[in-house]
Amino acid sequence: MSIATTATAPASITTGRLVLRPLRPDDAPAICTALSSWDVVKNLARVPWPYERADAETFIAKAGERAAAGEEHTFAIDNGSLVGAISVRGIEDGDAAIGYWLAEPVWGRGYATEALQALVDHVFKTLPVVSLTAGVITDNPASMRVLEKAGFVRSGPTQCATLARGEQAAIDHCLTRAAWERS
Fold it and tell me: How far apart are CA 136 and CA 114, in angstroms?
């Protein structure tokens, strides 16, 4: 893995098969296509349903604003084209949260695990973060497996307010810097 950095966030994170890079305005059509799948959106907290092109454009613009403010870093997951997104937010608090999604046609190829591990490594190597958290809706066992492969452990049941489905039962997961250093 290689990391190209700028003053506030990495310009890109490269893995064996992927590039995690900042979102660009020309990503809007691919994001809109991916998030037109109910099977993707139903598991995401901050994504409305139905998803429109204007939603993608707003998402990209807000991602840029949050990155400039140092609040959140959102990356396209790119394997030659955009196949998903991954973000880390709350980095100013020391306890950050990670979220991610993949387009349905690329599920099952290990991209989520690869992207998550790369972002986790970047966060703990370069930012003053003590722990990372992620919540997963209980009917999304694939995402739970992705987190567990990256070293996250279940930290308890919770509720997740989603734009698409309302309140949902979820399970929080956590990875501490100390646990990451031991792995």
Answer: 18
CATH of 2-182, picked from 3.40.630.30, 3.30.390.50, 3.40.1190.20, 3.40.50.2300, is: 3.40.630.30
Question: Per DSSP, what are the bridge partners of residue 174?
Answer: 133, 153
Task: Single out the residue of 147, 86, 146, 155 nearest to residue 122, CA to CA.
Answer: 86
Q: Which of 81, 149, 80 is nearest to 112 (CA)?
A: 149
With a threshold of 0.90, does the pTM exceed it? yes
- The one-character DSSP state at 26 is G
User: What are 55-108's pLDDT values in tens digits?
Assistant: 999 999 999 999 988 889 999 999 999 999 999 998 877 889 999 999 999 999
Q: Say if residue 32's pLDDT is above 80.
A: yes
pLDDT the model gives residue 39: 96
What is the pLDDT at residue 93? 75
Whole-Å CA distances, 123 to 52, 63, 84, 92: 31, 17, 19, 12
Q: Check residue 7 and give its pLDDT.
A: 32
